[in-house]
């Protein structure tokens, strides 16, 4: 058996289509054009690519895109002052400060300075708490939300009772992923670098979400036949004799595809869905701020 390869690009395009329709309705009915501000500190080439893609897709969905590029040496208080201006700018409904930030800046401090109502990343402790307490109004982080949407599609909405293993315990992916799967009534296990006998644990899972940051760590013989495997990893690897770096996930795709029921490729899996969910969150945030109902929730 070979796995169904989940087309994240196509799923993202469908979601962006819905977002675009909702944006035109908001513009027509309420003169409300959702706006997203993205703040990038430093000039990491990969981050620049993501920020450019986000900006392009925001505009394509009919939304306002604002980009702020700050020098890598920007003092923390200047970044905090910018966040404050964006918090108070009525044209801005969503704020994303691209992570990671340079070492001299206190990341948590910056994330906590963002108005929770504009926190489209869902990283503010208020939104983390809302997600953890099962508040349906919680702004959920984009990457785990994209994974959840793809999983729902694979299981025809019936995630209830599935054994889900999340590998990775980061605040950005692992922990919120576990919360979202719990909300779907999965039986959730979180594994991490100190987990004992990860392969054996993995073989019990109907759903595996790999967010380890270790290229091709999850092997084919870890996977229960028919399981659905979501690969969150994005590792840029240079292979010998090749000029360009290649994108590799946290899953050994060629092995897993022989065993799994379905799996996501890298690229073209989780990444595109992450950006589509960011647009979605921005529209939802704009509706909440204006006090109008949103067709996307
Ligand atoms: N505050 C914050 N929020 C984020 O959501 C955030 C962040 N910081 N920092 C960096 C990571 C990374 N991230 C990606 C989004 C899309 C792709 C994506 O579309 N990837 C394409 C490939 C792109 C390529 O070729 O490099 C794909 O997987 O098909 C990748 C990575 C969001 N992040």
TrEMBL record:
InterPro entries: Aminoacid_DH-like_N_sf, NAD(P)-bd_dom_sf, THF_DH/CycHdrlase, THF_DH/CycHdrlase_cat_dom, THF_DH/CycHdrlase_CS, THF_DH/CycHdrlase_NAD-bd_dom. Gene3D superfamilies: Leucine Dehydrogenase, chain A, domain 1 (3.40.50.10860), NAD(P)-binding Rossmann-like Domain (3.40.50.720). GO terms for cellular component: cytosol. Its EC number is 1.5.1.5, 3.5.4.9. Homodimer. Pathway: One-carbon metabolism; tetrahydrofolate interconversion. Catalyzes the oxidation of 5,10-methylenetetrahydrofolate to 5,10-methenyltetrahydrofolate and then the hydrolysis of 5,10-methenyltetrahydrofolate to 10-formyltetrahydrofolate. Residues 141-287 form the Tetrahydrofolate dehydrogenase/cyclohydrolase NAD(P)-binding domain. One of its GO terms (biological process) is methionine biosynthetic process. It catalyses: (6R)-5,10-methylene-5,6,7,8-tetrahydrofolate + NADP(+) = (6R)-5,10-methenyltetrahydrofolate + NADPH; (6R)-5,10-methenyltetrahydrofolate + H2O = (6R)-10-formyltetrahydrofolate + H(+). It comes from the Bacteria. Keywords: Amino-acid biosynthesis, Histidine biosynthesis, Hydrolase, Methionine biosynthesis, Multifunctional enzyme, NADP, One-carbon metabolism, Oxidoreductase, Purine biosynthesis. It holds the Pfam family THF_DHG_CYH_C. The lineage of its organism: Bacteria, Pseudomonadati, Pseudomonadota, Gammaproteobacteria, Cellvibrionales. Residues 6-121 form the Tetrahydrofolate dehydrogenase/cyclohydrolase catalytic domain. This is Bifunctional protein FolD. Belongs to the tetrahydrofolate dehydrogenase/cyclohydrolase family. It comes from Kineobactrum salinum. The gene is folD. One of its GO terms (molecular function) is methenyltetrahydrofolate cyclohydrolase activity. NADP(+) binds at residues 168-170, 234.
